[in-house]
Amino acid sequence: MLSRGRTLLRASLLGALFLPVVAFVSCADTEKQEIAHEDASIHIDAGGLDAASEGGCDASDEGCAPALSCAEVPWCPVPTNVSAFAALTSVWGSSKTDVWAVGSNGTVVHWDGKAWTVVPTPTSFYPPKLPVKNTFYAVRGTGPNDVWIASATDAVFRTRGYAGAATEWENVRLPIEEGLDVPLFAIWGTSAADVRLAGRASMMFDEMGEVVTVNAFTKTNLDDGGIGWQGVPGTASVFGMWGSAANDIWLVADNSADVSWQRSMSLHGTLPSDASELEWAAVDTHSAVTLRAVWGSSASDIWAVGDVGTIRHITSANASDWEVVPSPTREHLRAVWGSTADDVWAVGDAGTIIHYDGHTWSTTLAAFPAGKKPALHGVWGSARDDVWIVGDGVALHYTGGALGDAGGSR
Fold first, then answer.
1. What is the pLDDT of residues 55-102, one digit of tens each?
2. What is the pTM of this model?
3. CA distance 42 to 160
4. Which class does domain 4-398 fall in?
5. Do 49 and 393 form a contact (C-beta atoms < 8 A)?
6. What are the strands, taking DSSP E only, across 271-332?
7. Where are the domains of the chain?
8. How far is CA 337 from the centre of its chain?
9. CB 185 within 8 A of CB 152
10. At the N or C end, where does the chain have fewer CB atoms within 10 A?
């Protein structure tokens, strides 16, 4: 029997929340609204910044010296050459020598296997085309020559590949009228022809003149070779997105702005054999707090993490609800990634780093300066022995050393 929450989700959500994909026409038909680009879930705590990540940090400075050295712990800070007051919010790469990270104040950096380099900031869509100073919330690519970064519906950019100071960005804004833009928090794609963006919901007119609330967009290729976008109706703020394939997508979101008790929402999109568009089903999270990120090693092994240390697990491709998993932390978790089913990482507030070894989750340590516990926002790796974590003023690297027992006491 379905729980009350699950029954209401199916009755009130599936029929209206995820309708068939809508193609949008004139941007002038967009309903006006005012929503700030900054998300309260991304914050910069100056007291938790990692001064050791700055190239000019003096190791003799007591405030700079790590409480634990890189020889003692598995995670070591690596200089990024950006201000310690910049929050890095997301990280992704195509290989161990092609890694991208983005963050506040229009920050974009690239790792070439030896060092992080600041990448020229993209410019705005409208004249005078000034450097974008938004917080970029997401970065993802389908390969080294197709990399996407997103802040809001008016600040979506693509590059054909890293070229140092000559790196070029194409502004591929979504069909939202100027001044009415909303934040985007998630990017997913399996190929250059299959890219999805998702974030906060916005009201728009469709090609029939009807008002539709959308919170996601799918990329289409126009006849003239340009890029088009289709809106996906939805009222929730989507924070995480992952798929095992183009026809198997998972979302985690917060729909409490529309329905007060739907703070924790998860939707699974699949493509039936007789359909041309994804059909979405609500999957019970058994949670009253928001899930912030989702990742899987396969269609039948998927993890989601969120506020107050919440961890959920899917162990079947046809699961109707998430399994509740004991957590070693009560800190908010903001990102999850793994190399395999038995090697999964999740990160969050107060320098929290936890690891799943195929059996249990446990805490682990990083060489933060004494008294510093920065919020961590993103995690990604090219392999089990090459993993990056980014956060407030810090980039951490793991190269496969022993994890040891953090014990949760340090």
1. 334 444 544 556 788 999 999 999 999 988 899 999 999 999 999 999
2. 0.84
3. 28
4. mainly beta
5. yes
6. 279-282, 291-298, 301-306, 311-314, 323-324
7. 4-398
8. 11
9. no
10. N
